[in-house]
Design a protein that fits this description.
By secondary structure, this protein is an alpha+beta fold. The chain contains one helix and seven strands. It has a seven-stranded mixed beta sheet, with no helix packed on it. The longest helix has 42 residues. The termini are far apart.
Length: 129
């Protein structure tokens, strides 16, 4: 006699749990999609923020995380080669927008380098040519 109410109650509980699981999955998927879209637009654009400087550099030599190159500017004066140490873990963005490491950099590459104005530390690098 008491079997029907218990069976119905179990069915409702299972149904509610399934609906909640579906809603949670859909919300997670939408959040993931939004974060992916934001990451793609933010990593492809080389933009300097407050207290940051963006410099175009032609790489002459790469040894490990030591980059030697010439700053390229609109001015026609000859620039002297400089050497920078790229901090381990610095993001390097390829021309296709994928994130890699400084191991991908080579002599002859042209890059945009984002520097912190206060520490002169390299924050991020974009490969442009």
């Amino acid at each position: 006699m008491d079997m029907k109410p218990k069976k119905n109650k179990k069915k409702w509980i299972i149904l509610i749990i399934c609906i909640l699981a579906l809603l949670l999955g859909a919300a997670s998927f939408l959040l993931y999609q939004r974060n992916e879209a934001a990451a793609k637009t933010s990593t492809n654009e080389a933009v300097a923020g407050e207290n940051q400087t963006l410099v175009t550099v032609s790489i002459q030599k790469m040894i490990g995380n030591e980059m030697t190159g010439v700053s390229i500017s609109d001015e026609t004066e000859l620039q002297e080669a400089q050497t920078w140490m790229i901090p381990v873990g610095t993001e390097v963005v390829t021309k296709l927008g994928t994130i890699t490491t400084f191991a991908r950099l080579a002599s002859g590459d042209q890059v945009q380098v984002l520097f912190d104005d206060q520490t002169q530390e390299i924050l991020k690098i974009w490969i442009t040519q």
